[in-house]
Specification:
By secondary structure, this protein is mainly beta. It folds into two domains: 178 residues, Pnp Oxidase, Chain A (Roll); 58 residues, no CATH class. Helix content is 5%, strand content 38%. The protein is built from two helices and 17 strands. Strands 1, 2, 3, 6, 7, 8, 9 and 10 form an eight-stranded antiparallel sheet that branches. It has a five-stranded mixed sheet with strand order 11-13-14-17-16, with no helix packed on it. The chain is globular, with a radius of gyration of 21 Å. It starts with 15 loop residues before the first strand and ends with a strand.
Protein backbone atom coordinates (compact mmCIF):
# COMPACT_ATOMS: atom_id res chain seq x y z
CA UNK A 1 0.00 0.00 0.00
CA UNK A 2 1.36 3.43 -0.92
CA UNK A 3 0.96 6.55 1.18
CA UNK A 4 -2.08 8.68 0.49
CA UNK A 5 -1.96 12.39 -0.31
CA UNK A 6 -1.52 13.18 3.40
CA UNK A 7 1.42 10.80 3.77
CA UNK A 8 -0.62 8.18 5.64
CA UNK A 9 0.56 4.62 4.99
CA UNK A 10 -0.96 1.83 7.10
CA UNK A 11 1.54 -0.67 5.71
CA UNK A 12 4.42 1.35 7.19
CA UNK A 13 3.11 1.21 10.77
CA UNK A 14 5.50 -0.67 13.07
CA UNK A 15 3.61 -3.33 15.05
CA UNK A 16 6.14 -5.73 16.64
CA UNK A 17 5.17 -9.41 16.61
CA UNK A 18 8.46 -10.97 17.73
CA UNK A 19 12.15 -10.30 18.14
CA UNK A 20 15.15 -10.83 20.40
CA UNK A 21 18.06 -9.17 22.14
CA UNK A 22 21.53 -10.70 22.17
CA UNK A 23 24.38 -9.78 24.51
CA UNK A 24 28.09 -10.58 24.23
CA UNK A 25 31.44 -9.68 25.77
CA UNK A 26 32.80 -6.25 24.88
CA UNK A 27 34.76 -6.42 21.63
CA UNK A 28 32.70 -9.27 20.13
CA UNK A 29 32.25 -8.72 16.39
CA UNK A 30 28.90 -7.31 15.28
CA UNK A 31 27.46 -7.71 11.76
CA UNK A 32 28.74 -5.47 9.00
CA UNK A 33 26.30 -3.34 7.02
CA UNK A 34 25.87 -6.09 4.41
CA UNK A 35 25.71 -8.94 6.95
CA UNK A 36 23.06 -7.16 9.01
CA UNK A 37 20.73 -6.87 6.01
CA UNK A 38 20.67 -10.62 5.32
CA UNK A 39 17.30 -12.29 5.90
CA UNK A 40 19.03 -15.29 7.53
CA UNK A 41 21.12 -13.43 10.09
CA UNK A 42 24.17 -15.14 11.54
CA UNK A 43 25.56 -13.60 14.73
CA UNK A 44 29.00 -14.19 16.22
CA UNK A 45 29.08 -17.23 18.52
CA UNK A 46 30.04 -14.94 21.39
CA UNK A 47 26.62 -13.26 21.35
CA UNK A 48 23.97 -15.01 23.45
CA UNK A 49 20.29 -14.45 22.79
CA UNK A 50 18.60 -13.60 26.08
CA UNK A 51 15.34 -15.46 25.56
CA UNK A 52 11.85 -14.45 26.59
CA UNK A 53 10.83 -10.88 27.35
CA UNK A 54 7.70 -9.95 29.31
CA UNK A 55 4.70 -8.79 27.29
CA UNK A 56 5.06 -5.25 28.57
CA UNK A 57 8.86 -5.31 28.56
CA UNK A 58 9.77 -4.84 24.90
CA UNK A 59 12.52 -2.50 23.79
CA UNK A 60 12.13 1.11 24.92
CA UNK A 61 14.69 3.50 23.49
CA UNK A 62 15.36 7.02 24.74
CA UNK A 63 17.79 9.57 23.35
CA UNK A 64 17.96 12.80 25.30
CA UNK A 65 20.42 15.67 25.05
CA UNK A 66 22.58 16.19 28.13
CA UNK A 67 24.90 18.95 29.28
CA UNK A 68 24.17 22.65 29.40
CA UNK A 69 23.80 24.45 26.08
CA UNK A 70 25.96 27.48 25.31
CA UNK A 71 23.75 30.53 25.59
CA UNK A 72 24.24 34.08 24.38
CA UNK A 73 23.33 37.50 25.66
CA UNK A 74 20.76 37.85 22.89
CA UNK A 75 17.62 36.00 23.86
CA UNK A 76 16.69 32.95 21.81
CA UNK A 77 20.20 31.98 20.69
CA UNK A 78 21.97 28.86 21.97
CA UNK A 79 24.16 25.98 20.84
CA UNK A 80 23.50 22.45 22.05
CA UNK A 81 26.29 20.81 24.04
CA UNK A 82 26.44 17.87 21.60
CA UNK A 83 26.27 15.38 24.50
CA UNK A 84 23.42 12.90 24.84
CA UNK A 85 22.15 10.08 27.01
CA UNK A 86 20.95 7.12 24.97
CA UNK A 87 19.33 4.24 26.83
CA UNK A 88 17.63 0.93 26.10
CA UNK A 89 15.19 -0.56 28.60
CA UNK A 90 14.19 -4.25 28.42
CA UNK A 91 12.28 -6.39 30.92
CA UNK A 92 13.56 -9.97 30.85
CA UNK A 93 11.25 -12.85 31.75
CA UNK A 94 13.95 -15.54 32.02
CA UNK A 95 16.18 -15.73 35.08
CA UNK A 96 19.28 -17.66 34.09
CA UNK A 97 23.07 -17.40 33.75
CA UNK A 98 22.82 -14.81 30.98
CA UNK A 99 20.60 -12.48 33.01
CA UNK A 100 22.78 -12.92 36.11
CA UNK A 101 25.82 -11.92 34.05
CA UNK A 102 23.96 -8.82 32.85
CA UNK A 103 22.54 -8.00 36.28
CA UNK A 104 25.63 -8.54 38.39
CA UNK A 105 28.54 -8.74 35.95
CA UNK A 106 29.40 -12.12 37.49
CA UNK A 107 29.58 -15.78 36.50
CA UNK A 108 28.48 -18.38 39.05
CA UNK A 109 30.72 -21.21 40.19
CA UNK A 110 30.03 -24.91 39.54
CA UNK A 111 27.40 -24.83 42.31
CA UNK A 112 25.50 -21.94 40.76
CA UNK A 113 26.76 -19.68 43.56
CA UNK A 114 28.01 -16.10 43.37
CA UNK A 115 28.68 -13.35 45.90
CA UNK A 116 26.88 -10.14 45.00
CA UNK A 117 28.28 -6.93 46.49
CA UNK A 118 25.56 -4.70 45.08
CA UNK A 119 25.91 -1.18 43.83
CA UNK A 120 26.08 -2.12 40.17
CA UNK A 121 29.09 -2.96 38.02
CA UNK A 122 31.05 -1.48 35.12
CA UNK A 123 31.16 -4.52 32.81
CA UNK A 124 30.92 -3.57 29.14
CA UNK A 125 28.93 -5.60 26.63
CA UNK A 126 27.99 -5.53 22.99
CA UNK A 127 24.31 -5.80 22.12
CA UNK A 128 22.09 -6.62 19.17
CA UNK A 129 18.34 -6.27 18.87
CA UNK A 130 15.90 -7.44 16.23
CA UNK A 131 12.22 -6.60 15.92
CA UNK A 132 9.99 -8.13 13.27
CA UNK A 133 6.90 -6.12 12.49
CA UNK A 134 3.49 -7.36 11.45
CA UNK A 135 4.04 -5.92 7.96
CA UNK A 136 7.17 -8.07 7.51
CA UNK A 137 9.64 -5.23 7.98
CA UNK A 138 12.66 -6.00 10.18
CA UNK A 139 14.44 -3.44 12.37
CA UNK A 140 17.86 -4.34 13.75
CA UNK A 141 20.26 -2.38 15.94
CA UNK A 142 23.88 -3.17 16.79
CA UNK A 143 25.48 -1.60 19.87
CA UNK A 144 29.26 -1.93 20.33
CA UNK A 145 29.32 -0.52 23.88
CA UNK A 146 26.60 -1.25 26.44
CA UNK A 147 26.80 -0.82 30.20
CA UNK A 148 24.11 -1.49 32.80
CA UNK A 149 22.72 1.65 34.40
CA UNK A 150 20.25 -0.02 36.75
CA UNK A 151 18.16 -3.14 37.30
CA UNK A 152 14.71 -3.29 38.86
CA UNK A 153 13.27 -6.68 39.80
CA UNK A 154 9.50 -7.06 40.00
CA UNK A 155 7.87 -7.82 43.31
CA UNK A 156 7.54 -11.60 43.55
CA UNK A 157 3.92 -12.59 43.05
CA UNK A 158 2.51 -16.09 43.23
CA UNK A 159 1.75 -17.34 39.72
CA UNK A 160 3.21 -14.24 38.03
CA UNK A 161 6.26 -13.82 35.81
CA UNK A 162 9.15 -12.37 37.82
CA UNK A 163 10.49 -9.76 35.44
CA UNK A 164 13.84 -8.00 35.67
CA UNK A 165 13.84 -4.59 34.02
CA UNK A 166 17.33 -3.63 32.85
CA UNK A 167 18.27 -0.11 31.77
CA UNK A 168 21.31 -0.14 29.49
CA UNK A 169 23.40 2.92 28.68
CA UNK A 170 24.18 2.87 24.96
CA UNK A 171 27.61 4.49 24.85
CA UNK A 172 29.46 6.18 22.02
CA UNK A 173 31.93 3.93 20.22
CA UNK A 174 34.80 5.70 18.47
CA UNK A 175 35.30 2.96 15.87
CA UNK A 176 31.63 3.05 14.89
CA UNK A 177 31.52 6.82 15.16
CA UNK A 178 28.23 6.74 17.07
CA UNK A 179 26.19 4.79 19.60
CA UNK A 180 24.48 2.16 17.44
CA UNK A 181 23.96 1.08 13.86
CA UNK A 182 20.44 0.52 12.55
CA UNK A 183 18.98 -1.51 9.69
CA UNK A 184 15.41 -1.12 8.46
CA UNK A 185 14.80 -3.99 6.07
CA UNK A 186 11.62 -3.74 4.01
CA UNK A 187 9.78 -6.86 2.94
CA UNK A 188 10.79 -6.32 -0.69
CA UNK A 189 14.44 -5.92 0.36
CA UNK A 190 14.68 -9.37 1.87
CA UNK A 191 15.80 -12.51 0.10
CA UNK A 192 13.13 -13.60 -2.43
CA UNK A 193 11.00 -16.41 -1.01
CA UNK A 194 11.64 -20.00 -2.01
CA UNK A 195 8.87 -22.56 -2.51
CA UNK A 196 7.94 -24.34 0.70
CA UNK A 197 9.48 -27.84 0.88
CA UNK A 198 8.63 -30.84 3.07
CA UNK A 199 10.99 -32.18 5.76
CA UNK A 200 13.44 -29.35 5.17
CA UNK A 201 15.57 -27.54 7.72
CA UNK A 202 14.80 -23.83 7.89
CA UNK A 203 16.76 -21.16 9.73
CA UNK A 204 15.36 -18.18 11.61
CA UNK A 205 14.40 -15.52 9.06
CA UNK A 206 13.98 -17.87 6.08
CA UNK A 207 11.13 -16.86 3.78
CA UNK A 208 8.94 -19.31 1.85
CA UNK A 209 5.93 -19.13 -0.44
CA UNK A 210 3.05 -21.59 -0.14
CA UNK A 211 1.18 -23.00 -3.14
CA UNK A 212 -1.60 -20.48 -2.49
CA UNK A 213 0.84 -17.58 -2.81
CA UNK A 214 1.04 -16.72 0.90
CA UNK A 215 4.47 -15.61 2.15
CA UNK A 216 5.76 -16.90 5.49
CA UNK A 217 8.89 -15.99 7.46
CA UNK A 218 10.44 -18.32 10.07
CA UNK A 219 10.50 -16.96 13.62
CA UNK A 220 11.86 -20.21 15.07
CA UNK A 221 14.25 -22.50 13.22
CA UNK A 222 13.44 -26.17 12.71
CA UNK A 223 12.39 -28.85 10.23
CA UNK A 224 9.18 -28.60 8.22
CA UNK A 225 6.46 -31.23 8.31
CA UNK A 226 5.79 -33.69 5.47
CA UNK A 227 2.71 -31.73 4.39
CA UNK A 228 2.35 -28.02 3.66
CA UNK A 229 0.89 -25.95 6.52
CA UNK A 230 -2.29 -23.96 6.17
CA UNK A 231 -1.46 -20.28 6.12
CA UNK A 232 -2.88 -18.21 9.00
CA UNK A 233 -5.89 -16.16 7.99
CA UNK A 234 -4.36 -12.95 9.34
CA UNK A 235 -1.15 -11.17 8.39
CA UNK A 236 1.25 -11.39 11.34
CA UNK A 237 -0.36 -14.54 12.78
CA UNK A 238 1.79 -17.65 13.28
CA UNK A 239 1.54 -21.33 12.42
CA UNK A 240 3.63 -24.29 13.60
CA UNK A 241 4.97 -26.53 10.82
CA UNK A 242 6.85 -29.54 12.17
CA UNK A 243 9.35 -27.81 14.46
CA UNK A 244 9.37 -24.54 12.49
CA UNK A 245 7.26 -21.57 13.51
CA UNK A 246 6.21 -19.30 10.66
CA UNK A 247 4.45 -15.98 10.72
CA UNK A 248 2.53 -14.72 7.73
CA UNK A 249 4.11 -11.77 5.95
CA UNK A 250 1.62 -11.43 3.10
Amino acid sequence: MAADSSGNDISAVGIPVTGFIGIGPYGTALPTSAEGKAASLSLDAGITKCGLITTDGGFQWTDEPSGDPIEFWQRGYSIKSGDATTQLVVKFAQYDATLRKIKYGLTADANGYMVVKGGGHDTQFVGFTEEIYKNGVIRRRAMPDLTVNKVSEDRSGRGSVLGNEVTFDVNTNDTLGGRFGEWLIPTDGATPPSDWAATTEYAFGDVVELTGGEILRATAAGTSDDSEPTAPALIGATVVDGTVTWYRVS
